[in-house]
Write a structure and sequence with these properties.
The complex is a heterodimer of chains A (186) and B (702). Chain A is mostly helical and 186 residues long. Helix content of chain A is 75%, strand content 0%. Chain A folds into 2 domains: 106 residues, Rna Polymerase Sigma Factor, Chain: A (Orthogonal Bundle), CATH 1.10.1740.10; 74 residues, Orthogonal Bundle (Arc Repressor Mutant, subunit A), CATH 1.10.10.10. In chain B, 49% of the residues lie in helices and 14% in strands. The longest helix of chain B has 25 residues. Classes of the chains: A mainly alpha (186), B alpha+beta (702). At the A-B interface, helix 1, helix 3, helix 4, helix 5 and helix 6 of A face helix 1, helix 3, helix 4, strand 4 and helix 20 of B.
C-alpha cells in the first residue's frame, strides 16, 4: 500500500519543519504535485515566510499575499532550487517576492487588524511601541535594509544582491537608518 | 594610532556590524575604551538590533493553507519574480515589457484552469466498510450526491475502540486514524483505513482535505461493530458504541444501551446506562433485581465485575448489597476505584469539620492506596487549600496533574487562591499555554475551525486566569499583556474590567476608554455596571451611541467567526421532521435575527442551556430576536414566551436548488445557529452566552 500522504502530512504538521533527510524527498513530492507534501512544507516554513514578509511590508494583507503567492508557486519555483540550504533559498525567494510587490503595490488602507493588534498590545511598553512606530516611519529603502540586515541577519553583500545595490550602499543605508531611529527614540 | 577626534558614525556602524578590517577595528575599540560617547553609540546599535529582533510580529492566519491548496487544485498558478531583482533604474525599464508578458501568461493559465468540472449524481449517500481479513486495512467505499461529490480527494477519519477491560462511565476517547479516499468519478470514492484486528467498535466521518466540510451519519452504515458467529454485534461492540456516542449522539447511545440490555440480559451495563439516562428519577420498570446478576457471577469474579454490579445495586436502591460487594472488592483489590471512592466519601463525611484532620486522612489514603481517582485528587487539593497547607497543596496538585495533565489549568486556578502559591499557579498557567499551543488531536466530527475555536476558548480562559493572578501579584505589565490576549480570544467582561483598571494605572487613558467602549457595547452588561462605565467615559449620549455602534460593527465579525459558503450555503432552510419529510423552516423565520437552538432532554447540559435561553427571552424580545428551540423529542406544549417557539425536528437542511445538504442535526450536542434578518446562517455556537450576545449585537446593527 502506498504511504498515505495526507496522513503523513498530518503527523509532520506537529513538528516545526521536516527533518533534513526527509526534506529532500518532500520537496520532490511537492514538485510532483503532491498537495500533502506542499502542506508539510507550508507547516514548516509558512510562519517564517509570513513574519519576514510582514516585517518588510508592514502590511498584514501584503504579507498574506506573499505567503499565498510563494506557496502557490512553490512546485514550479523549486525548479530553481539547487538542493542545498532550503531555508536560505526560501528566505531569499520571499525577499524577492516582497521587493517585487513593494515596487508595484498601491497602498491600501489596512482595516481593523493591524491597528487593533497594535492597540491590544501592552500599553505600558512605551519603548516597544515607539520602536515599532519609528521603524514603520523609516523610508522604505532604509527599513528594508534594517529588516534584512539587523533582524534577518543577511550580510551587506547579500542585501546588496537582493536590492541590486553595492554592499557599501547597504552599509550606508543601514547607518542612515540607525541615525534616524536614534533620533526618533531619544 | 588612536583617534584624536571621534570616529565617524559610519565607522562605528561598521564596527557594530563586524565589517571593519581587524586593524581598523582595533583602533576604534581602543577609542571606545576611553570614550563614553562613542561607546554608548555602539552599545545603542547592538541594543537596537536586539530590540528589533524582539519586536513581536503576528503569525499568519490559519486559513491560508486551505486556500492555497484549493487554488492549486483549481489550477491557479503564479509565476514568481525570482530572477535577480533590479532597482528601479534605467536597467529595469526594458524588463517591464517582459514582466507584463509574464503577467498575461499567468492570467491566461489561471483562466484556463479556473473552471472545475462538476458532476453531481442524484442519489443517497452510502458508506460501506469491509474488513476482509484481520490485520488488513479496511476498505472504505463512499458514494455521495452531496457537496463533497466534486472533490478529487477526501479524508476518512475513524475513531476506534478495542476489546479490553471496560470501565463504566469511562471518558477515555478512542484512537483516531485517517485514510485517503480517491475519487472514481460521479461522487464515488474508495480508499482504506487501518484498523487493528482487536477493534470492537469504530465510527467514521468523511471530510474534505481541509477538514472544514464534514459528512457524517450515525446510522449503522457509518459504523463498524464486531460481530459474533451469528452475525450479532458483540457485547463489547455495543457497550463501546454506547460509551462512544454518549456525548455525541445521546439518543443513539440510549438505543444502543437498550439493545445491549436486550441482547445481553446477564450483563448489567446496558441497564446501568438506562437507569442513569432514561425516565424520571432513573426508574426503569423492567430493571431486573440485582440478584439476577449476582447469580450469574463466576466462582472467582473479578473486581470490575463486582464493581459493575455494585453500581447497579446502588442505582436500584439495594444499599446492603452495595456494602457487601465493596467488601468483596476490597478483599480482591484494595486499590480498586470503587473502594477508594467509597473510603474517600466516608472520610469526607466523618471529618468535615476539621480540615487538618481531613487532610491527614486523605494523605494516608493516598499513601496506602493511592489511586488517580476523580474524587480523591481534587478533594485532596481542595482540603489542603482550605487548611492553608501550602506544601500539601503543591503535593496534591502535582499528583493530580500527573494523573490527568488536562487538569493543569484547573489545578492552577485552585492553587492561585492562596497568595503564597500564586507564583506556582502562574508557572503552571504559563506551562498550560505551551501545552495548548501544541497541536491536539481534532475530535471526530469537529471541523478544523471548530477545533481552533475550542482551542481559542481554552487559551482565553488560561490567559484570563493568568492575568488575574499577575494582577494580584502586582505584575501590571505582564498582567496587561495576558488580559489583553484573553480579551482578544474570547469575550469576558471581567477581563475587560481588569484591563480598564490596569490601563488607567499605567496611564493609558485612551486604551482604558477603548476597553470601556467594548464593555458598554456588550448587550449583556449589567445595568449598574453600564451606568458606571458610561459615566467614566464622559461622552454625550449622541457620541456614545455613535461610538458604541461603531464598536459593535467591529465586534460582530469576530463574534460570528469566519463563515464559508461551503458550510453555510445560501438557500432556503428546511427542517426535516422526526416523522420524515422536510418542512420549510423559512416560513417561521420572518424578518428578525433568529436563534435556532438545538437541544435534547437526554442531556442535562442541554437542558440547562435551554433554561438559560428561556431566561433571556425577554431581552431577546426587546431587541427583536426570535428564539426557536428545536428538539427531535416531543417536548409538549410550547413553553416559550410569545414571539418564540419550540418545534420538533431532526435535521436542518439547506436547499440551494440542485441539492439539499445536511447542515445540522438536532442531536449534535445542543448547538445554536444564528440567522440574520435575511434568513442566512451567520454562525454556529456552542456557548449560550456567546450566541445570545452575538444575536443581540446583530439585531442592534442590522
Amino acid at each position: 500500500m502506498d504511504p498515505d500522504p495526507i496522513a503523513n502530512a498530518r503527523e509532520r504538521q506537529n513538528s516545526a519543519a521536516p527533518d533534513p533527510e526527509a526534506l529532500g524527498s518532500t520537496l520532490e513530492r511537492v514538485v510532483a504535485g503532491d498537495l500533502g507534501a506542499l502542506a508539510v512544507i507550508y507547516s514548516g516554513y509558512a510562519e517564517r515566510v509570513y513574519r519576514l514578509a510582514y516585517r518588510l511590508t508592514r502590511s498584514v494583507q501584503d504579507a498574506q499575499d506573499v505567503v499565498q503567492d510563494l506557496f502557490l508557486a512553490l512546485p514550479e519555483a523549486l525548479g530553481q532550487y539547487r538542493g542545498r540550504g532550503f531555508d536560505a533559498w526560501l528566505r531569499t525567494a520571499t525577499v524577492r517576492v516582497v521587493l517585487h510587490k513593494l515596487r508595484h503595490r498601491r497602498r491600501r488602507r489596512e482595516v481593523a487588524l493591524e491597528p487593533d493588534w497594535l492597540a491590544s498590545r501592552p500599553p505600558q511598553h512605551e519603548t516597544r511601541l515607539d520602536l515599532e512606530a519609528a521603524l514603520a516611519a523609516l523610508p522604505e529603502t532604509l527599513r528594508v535594509v534594517v529588516v534584512l540586515k539587523e533582524i534577518e541577519g543577511f550580510s551587506h553583500t547579500e542585501v546588496g544582491d537582493l536590492l541590486g545595490i553595492t554592499a557599501a550602499a547597504s552599509a550606508t543605508r543601514l547607518m542612515r537608518a540607525r541615525e534616524q531611529l536614534r533620533r526618533a527614540l531619544d | 594610532m588612536l583617534f584624536r577626534t571621534h570616529p565617524g558614525y559610519d565607522q562605528l556602524s561598521r564596527l557594530a556590524d563586524g565589517e571593519l578590517a581587524p586593524a581598523e577595528a582595533m583602533e576604534v575599540n581602543g577609542h571606545l575604551a576611553q570614550c563614553d560617547r562613542c561607546r554608548e553609540e555602539v552599545d545603542f546599535m547592538a541594543e537596537l538590533r536586539e530590540r528589533l529582533r524582539a519586536l513581536a510580529v503576528p503569525g499568519p492566519p490559519s486559513g491560508l493553507l486551505p486556500e492555497i491548496l484549493d487554488r492549486r487544485e483549481s489550477g491557479d498558478r503564479v509565476v514568481l519574480p525570482l530572477a535577480a531583482a533590479l532597482e528601479d533604474t534605467g536597467r529595469w525599464r526594458f524588463r517591464k515589457g517582459a514582466a507584463a508578458l509574464v503577467a498575461v501568461l499567468v492570467l491566461a493559465v489561471a483562466a484556463f484552469f479556473v473552471l472545475r468540472p462538476q458532476s453531481i449524481r442524484a442519489g443517497s449517500t452510502t458508506f460501506e466498510v469491509e474488513m476482509r481479513e484481520a490485520g488488513r486495512p479496511v476498505e472504505v467505499s463512499f458514494v455521495t450526491a452531496g457537496g463533497l461529490a466534486g472533490e478529487s480527494i477526501l479524508r476518512v477519519r475513524a475513531e476506534y475502540f478495542t476489546f479490553g477491560e471496560l470501565e463504566l462511565g469511562s471518558t477515555e476517547s478512542g484512537t483516531l486514524v485517517e485514510g485517503v479516499l480517491r475519487s472514481r468519478g460521479d461522487g464515488e470514492f474508495r480508499g482504506e483505513v487501518l484498523l487493528p484486528s482487536t477493534v470492537a467498535y469504530a465510527r467514521f466521518v468523511v471530510e474534505d482535505y481541509r477538514g472544514e466540510d464534514i459528512e457524517r451519519d450515525y446510522a449503522e452504515g457509518w459504523e463498524y461493530l464486531a460481530r459474533n458467529e451469528n452475525g450479532e454485534p458483540t457485547f463489547e461492540a455495543l457497550w463501546q458504541r454506547t460509551l462512544a456516542l454518549e456525548s455525541v449522539a445521546p439518543r443513539e447511545a440510549l438505543e444502543s444501551a437498550r439493545e445491549l440490555a436486550e441482547r445481553y440480559p446477564d450483563r448489567p451495563e446496558g441497564w446501568i446506562y438506562r437507569l442513569a439516562n432514561e425516565g424520571e428519577g432513573g426508574i426503569v420498570r423492567d430493571a431486573p433485581p440485582v440478584g439476577a446478576f449476582l447469580n450469574r457471577l463466576p466462582p472467582d469474579p473479578r473486581a470490575d465485575e463486582l464493581a459493575t454490579i455494585a453500581d447497579y445495586a446502588g442505582r436500584t436502591g439495594a444499599d446492603d448489597v452495595v456494602s457487601d460487594l465493596l467488601q468483596r472488592i476490597e478483599a480482591i483489590d484494595p486499590r480498586h476505584p470503587a473502594v477508594v471512592q467509597n473510603r474517600v466519601e466516608r472520610i469526607l463525611a466523618d471529618l468535615q469539620a476539621n480540615p487538618a484532620q481531613l487532610l491527614a486522612s486523605l494523605e494516608s489514603e493516598w499513601l496506602s492506596h493511592g489511586h488517580p481517582d476523580a474524587v480523591l485528587l481534587p478533594m485532596g487539593l481542595a482540603t489542603a487549600l482550605e487548611a492553608g497547607a501550602t506544601d500539601a497543596a503543591r503535593r496534591w496538585a502535582d499528583r493530580w496533574v500527573a494523573a490527568d495533565p488536562a487538569a493543569n489549568a484547573e489545578v492552577a486556578a485552585m492553587l492561585g487562591q492562596l497568595p503564597e502559591l500564586r507564583p506556582v499557579a502562574i508557572d503552571r498557567l504559563r506551562a498550560e499555554l505551551g501545552r495548548i499551543e501544541r497541536p491536539m488531536t481534532r475530535p471526530l466530527g469537529k471541523t478544523r475551525s471548530d477545533d481552533r475555536r475550542a482551542v481559542d476558548r481554552r487559551r482565553a480562559g488560561v490567559f484570563a486566569s493568568l492575568g488575574h493572578l499577575l494582577l494580584a501579584e502586582g505584575e501590571l505589565d505582564e498582567a496587561s499583556d495576558a488580559l489583553s490576549r484573553a480579551a482578544a480570544h474570547a469575550w469576558d467582561s471581567d477581563t475587560l474590567e481588569r484591563l480598564v483598571r490596569v490601563s488607567e494605572v499605567l496611564g493609558r487613558d485612551d486604551i482604558a476608554d477603548r476597553y470601556r467602549l467594548l464593555l458598554v457595547a456588550d448587550p449583556l452588561l449589567e445595568t449598574e455596571d453600564r451606568h458606571r462605565i458610561v459615566t467614566e467615559l464622559g461622552l454625550t449620549s449622541t457620541e456614545l451611541e455613535s461610538r458604541v455602534d461603531q464598536v459593535r460593527r467591529e465586534m460582530i465579525g469576530g463574534m460570528l467567526g469566519s463563515t464559508r459558503d461551503r458550510i453555510f450555503p445560501s438557500g432556503s432552510i428546511r427542517l426535516a421532521a422526526v416523522d420524515g419529510g422536510p418542512r420549510d423552516l423559512g416560513a417561521r423565520l420572518g424578518h428578525a435575527p433568529t436563534l435556532v437552538q438545538f437541544w435534547t432532554p437526554l442531556l442535562s447540559s442541554s437542558v440547562r442551556k435551554l433554561e438559560f435561553l428561556l431566561g433571556e427571552c425577554d431581552r431577546l424580545t426587546d431587541e427583536g430576536v426570535r428564539l426557536i428551540a428545536v428538539s427531535a423529542d416531543a417536548v409538549g406544549e410550547n413553553q416559550l414566551p410569545d414571539g418564540h417557539e419550540t418545534c420538533q425536528g431532526f435535521e436542518i437542511l439547506i436547499d440551494s436548488g440542485s441539492e439539499a445538504r445536511l447542515a445540522f442535526r438536532t442531536d449534535v450536542l445542543s448547538e445554536g445557529i444564528l440567522l440574520d434578518r435575511g434568513g442566512q446562517i451567520r454562525a454556529r455556537f456552542v456557548d449560550a452566552l456567546d450566541e445570545v450576545r452575538a444575536a443581540l449585537v446583530l439585531a442592534a446593527i442590522q
